[in-house]
Amino acid sequence: MTDLTPRTQPDGAGPTAKPRRKWLPMVLIAAVLVAGGVIVTQFLRSAIDYYCNVDEIGERSGCDTDSRLRIQGVVDKGSVESAGGDTNFDISFNEATVAVYYDGDPGGIFKECIPVVVHGTFDEAGTTFLGDRVEVKHSDEYVSVNDERLDEADDLAVDCAT
Question: Transmembrane ranges (predicted)?
Answer without folding.
Answer: 23-44
